[in-house]
Amino acid sequence: MPRRIRPPSRYTVWIARPGRSPLTWQVSALVPALLLLLLLLWGGTTLYLAHTARRSEALKAQVAALSDQVRALSQQLTDKESENQALARRAAEMLDRLDALEKDLGALKKRAGLKETGEKKAPSRAPVGAGRPADTEELFAAVDARLKALQGELSGRVEPALFRTLAREAATPRGYPLWVPTYIASGFGVRKNPFGRGYEFHNGVDLPAWYGTRIHATAPGRVVAVGWSRIFGRYVKIDHGYGYQTLYGHMSRIAVRRGQYVKRGQVVGYVGSTGRSTGPHVHYSVFVNRRAVDPRPFLGLRYASR
Ligand SMILES: [Zn+2]
After folding, report:
1. Cys-Cys with 114: which of 78, 109, 133, 244 at CB 3.0–4.6 Å?
2. What is the model's pLDDT at position 305?
3. Ligand 1 centroid distance, CA of 90 (Å)
């Protein structure tokens, strides 16, 4: 078994000096150990401090990068918010325009003879300016829904009704069959028989004019009768559709054929005094569903009756 070497308890520091006796110190064995320890401590501290400095630099850089990111994000957020608010404003503008459209549609409905339905429309307005995405999305959804509803109503209900109304209006007799000043010499209804005793029913109005004055159709339609009658003399009857018919009598000459389509205002004949007549005039009758009605409401106000 090898002998254990005991560490010396003391050391001798020996410094050689040429030409002179060397310097010697007796020191405790602890001194070099202490020196070594101090050296180690110093080195460790230096290393630790250097490391800490490096870490702190890295941290600082990280913080700077992070704060840059935060700044960029908050800028993006601000941009998004203002973009969102701009969108919300646009949605609000669209809702305003929709309101105007709905008003127009209301007028159109009235024109088409449609009654307003009692249905309440869903509240279309959301608070504007909050700028949160949900609000804007809701606004656009509302705009979209109302647009679809408007489109549906316009094409499904208003347009057909409008076409029907306009077609009926186009077929409705309007104005005088004479385009020269005239007056109602004899009105619609029961009157004294101008040719004898008693009373008779007069199923139209008598409008005097010069012999040969042009007689115009008061609405477009098809000529359904052209001929001679003991009462109306030479006459023309036009069917306008929608239950409307007109008759023009006492003509001196007829200008259309049976089955012919005529436009509103087209000349159908000329004033005469044929049939039961006391002087040149046109007898004008309006029929609604084959029943003679007073033509006055159809004449308008162009020539007031005397
Ligand atoms: Zn008459």
Report:
1. 109
2. 45
3. 66
What is the distance in A from the centroid of ligand 1 to the CA of 283?
4
- C-alpha of residue 207 to centroid of ligand 1, in Å: 8
Contact yes or no for 246/286 (Cβ under 8 A): yes
CATH 2.70.70.10 is held by the domain 189-299: yes
User: Which parts of the chain are beta strand (E)?
Assistant: 10-17, 20-28, 189-192, 199-202, 205-208, 214-216, 221-229, 233-241, 244-254, 261-262, 267-271, 281-288, 291-293
Residue 206: left (phi > 0), alpha (psi -120 to 50), or beta?
Answer: beta
Tell me which residues of the chain have a pLDDT lower than 50.
Answer: 120, 126, 129-131, 303-306
List, in order, residues 6 or more apart from 231 with CB less than 8 Å away.
Answer: 249, 275, 276
- Is the pTM higher than 0.70? The answer reads no
In which residue are the tokens 């009598």 written? 249
What are the residue boundaries of the structural domains of the chain, listed by start? 89-171, 189-299
Q: What's the pLDDT tens digit per position in 213-251? A: 999 999 999 999 999 999 999 999 999 999 999 999 999
